[in-house]
Specification:
Structural class: alpha/beta
Strand order of the largest sheet: 2-5-4-3-1-6
Helix content: 40-55%
Radius of gyration: 30 Å
């Protein structure tokens, strides 16, 4: 149950510092007074000059662009309060040798901390657990002070923390022990990507994933940014000659549109298309050379003509000029409706699979949601002679279940690390957590280990792996979620 808290005051901090707290870049603040642990307050973004130091003297270089942007957005008449915080701990730092370590874990330059310490007997470092407000509170600018009274009391809950409890605990431990950050180079990269992320979707995705990896964010995983794939939703409609996509088009034009989207679909799935052969009147609609030969015919309309199987056989023979090669090739008819008995008999006789446009659209959506999830050689096994939609649907469901199992394994590893506090987990520990979860299907420790190894591949990078002397002694740690399609 979420705890309800009444806020009446706000702690004034430099606006860039609050921005860093909200972004999860750090969990520390430097108030000018000691804060009692447990005290709660809103965060008031003030235009505070820090002992007359300019921004470039005060903030580390990788954070400076963020600081400059935050300062530029300050309004001289009103401020916008976006978050509140609870003080978890407050320490007094007066050892010069600790300042460099403190700088590495925060946004402040070592030189700035040294200058502050020369002017004060102590630097107060408060550990703040920060929570976002449901909506910003705007209030008039208040004269500078340690605490600012709010124009009205705020009733808030702790339901929207910037960082999860486990991530905050790890960050707090590093700050208390002044341990160096694990990936300073990634912090630099994240900061560089901030500027690109406003105009480049891929940079935005990468920047968000780096923040999660660094423990700066507890957000749900960002789904991969996809190209403009709106065409996928037109596959079935083009095959069925939907009226809204078929205005003022001849049969030839509509058929050509469907051929194009089918070729795009097969190429998206991983086939190599022979573009020297573009179908058209009297031509073979589909010819794929890799990963295995595939020939096909596309029929848009209300139903597939009876002679389509014979047409594919004749055109395939003419194009390949080798009956043996044609016999080995996968033969596919894609079109709407329920095949007639005559067409079904011919398709079964000549080893041709018949697929509806809706099924092709589902396959392409699967590949879009989970890139490279469609194994074309396994798919080939489900392209049975005759109507193959039910068989292909079984394959799609099988792939989706395998993805769900991997998501369950990742979830079990993540939960185990959060509950135990251990940075790495053995196969036995993950197996125990997995068996206690509401998983799709049971897994033996050996099978679970194989999945963890698969997820730790550099090409997937969902899990980190420290290889042991044997598979039982391998250790794993969570990196990122595998988001399931809604």
């Amino acid at each position: 149950m979420n705890q309800s808290i009444l806020l009446q005051t706000a702690l004034a901090l430099p606006v860039p510092d609050i921005e860093a707290l909200i972004q999860g870049r750090m969990i520390a603040a430097m108030p000018r007074m000691f804060l009692n642990p447990g005290r709660t307050f809103a965060l008031y973004p003030a235009n505070l000059s820090v002992d007359l130091l300019s921004g470039d003297q005060y903030y580390r270089s990788h954070f400076l662009p963020v600081a400059q942007k935050a300062l530029a957005q300050l309004n001289s008449d009103k401020v916008s309060i976006k978050a509140w915080a609870k003080c978890e701990l407050c320490q007094m730092v007066n050892e010069p040798e600790s300042l460099e370590a403190l700088s590495r874990l925060t946004i402040w330059k070592t030189e700035a901390l040294q200058q502050i310490l020369q002017q004060r007997p102590f630097i107060f470092v408060a550990y703040l657990r920060v929570y976002l407000l449901p909506q910003p509170l705007e209030m008039p600018v208040h004269p500078s002070g340690n605490f600012v009274p709010l124009p009205k009391s705020l009733n808030v809950t702790d339901s929207t923390p910037v960082l999860s409890e486990s991530i905050f605990a790890k960050r707090r431990q590093k700050l208390e022990k002044l341990e160096p950050p694990e990936h300073p180079e990634l912090e630099e990269l994240q900061s560089a990507l901030v500027h690109l992320s406003t105009t480049n979707p891929k940079a935005k995705q990468l920047e968000a994933e780096i923040k999660m990896f660094l423990g700066w964010s507890s957000d749900k995983p960002v789904k991969p940014i996809k190209r403009d794939l709106a065409w996928i939703k037109t596959i079935a409609a083009l095959g069925n000659r939907a009226k809204e996509l078929d205005t003022n088009k001849s049969n030839y034009e509509a058929g050509t549109d469907f051929e194009i989207v089918v070729r795009d679909s097969l190429e998206f799935l991983g086939f190599t298309i022979d573009y020297a052969h573009k179908g058209g009147a009297g031509g073979l609609d589909l010819l794929c050379s890799k990963p295995y030969p595939l020939v096909g015919e596309c029929k848009a309309g209300k139903k597939i003509p009876n002679d389509t199987a014979v047409q594919l056989l004749n055109l395939g023979t003419l194009r390949l000029q080798d009956k043996e090669t044609l016999a080995k090739a996968t033969k596919l008819i894609i079109g709407p409706g329920v095949p007639t008995t005559q067409l079904m008999d011919a398709a079964k006789l000549h080893g041709m699979a018949i697929m509806n446009p809706e099924t092709l659209e589902k396959l392409v959506k699967l590949q879009s949601n989970y890139p490279n999830s469609v194994d074309l050689f396994k798919l080939k096994e489900y392209l049975k002679p005759g109507q193959s939609d039910d068989e292909v649907a079984k394959y799609i469901e099988q792939v989706e279940q395998e993805i769900k199992v991997r998501s369950d394994v990742l979830h079990s590893l993540k939960k185990y690390q959060e509950k135990s506090g251990f940075e790495r987990a053995s196969v036995e520990a993950v197996s125990g957590a997995y068996s206690m979860s509401n998983a799709l299907r049971p897994l033996s420790p050996k099978d679970l280990h194989e999945i963890l190894v698969e997820l730790s591949s550099p090409l997937t990078n969902y899990v980190g792996r420290i290889k042991g002397e044997n598979w039982q002694s391998d250790r794993f740690y969570f990196l990122r979620d595998l988001p399931l399609d809604d």
